[in-house]
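Ticket #375: bound-state structure for magnesium ion.
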Amino acid sequence: MATVSMVDVHKSFSKGGNTIAAVDGVSVDIADGEFFVILGPSGAGKTTTLKALAGLVDIDSGSIHIGGTDVTLVEPYHRNVAMAFESYALYPQKTVAENLASPLKSGRTGRYTEAERAERIDQVTTTLGINHLQKRFPRELSNGQRQRVALGRVLVRPADVYLLDEPLSHLDAKLRASMRAELKQLGAMSSTTTIYVTHDYQEALALGDRIAVMRDGRLVQIGRPEEIWRRPADTFVAKAVGQPEINLLDGVVDTGRIRLGDGTFDVPVPPETSCQRGDRVRVGLRPSDIQVGGSDEAPRGRVILAERLGRNIELTVDIGGTQLVVLAEGRGGVGEGAEVTLTVADADVHLFAIGEGSTPSLRTSGQEPVLEAAQ
Ligand code: ADP
Ligand code: MG
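RESOLUTION: The complex was predicted; output attached.
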């Protein structure tokens, strides 16, 4: 159990004559027992950040503290952190139970009795849903089960901090979802500080006590899942969470309303904003926050594309020359060519500074913008 702090950590690599700032001034304080998620696209610097915490890369400047102790110059072995890598390996000639026992036999954790080892293995396999597989060999397991065992090998070892680098990335969407639920349980049960890296916003929202969104070596926003979802600091964060991606439209503030595009479509000014009549703003509207139907007075648009995504229908609606992506509930038969009214609640209107460029978006595993953490 331990707090984790990074103070202005920098780490650059030279590659083909160029210098890449993989970690570019990261400062963060993580609480004892917190489940902290780092969310970012490939190349953002997530793995390098974890390796810096584990002591597997030497940082150029800054400092790292675990449990209040400065460990910047401490060898990995003495940091008492357990790290799971993206790629995982099991001993093929050992059973699941034996694979899980080996981390408890080596090094500083070698002090366990056989009964204590069995108890820890039981706990971890139960949490990961692989308790009944203890006597199997890796070749007798599915990919998903093997990944659970690999994760178990990290979690079975008592450590001050667990560092998990995209532990679900090799699983298919369905398995990811079920593992996510189990990891959430684990997070709730375990009091061990956990830093979890992912490019999947659904995982981040579901699992994180807090989320740090990482871009180009920097943490661009740190907050609880609801804050990241409801108050994204910029368009990069807004696009990083949510699928389909948030609509970004330029508009001009009028009295109580913001006129978008040619002015046919307008949305309310969100509460607690200081914008003034005549201001030019960039407006973000999440596809799932736009209501189809409702008031007859609401702006009208025409559906130009309708695509079913399981329970929902993704609509592309043209409204006065502006195209909006809308995620509608799938029961009503809104088809291509239909005329629809669109309304947005004031709290669902996100404002950004004008001229914030379009940014690379994240890969996502699923289609539905579920927000389990905020329920
Ligand atoms: P992420 O895990 O978010 O995908 P990484 O931390 O792996 O990002 O990488 C961040 C950046 O640093 C990338 O541009 C990557 O190519 C570069 N990088 C990472 N490790 C090395 C290394 N050992 N040598 C050179 N460049 C590296
Ligand atoms: Mg990585």
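RESOLUTION NOTES: The two ends are 28 Å apart (CA to CA).
TICKET STATUS: resolved
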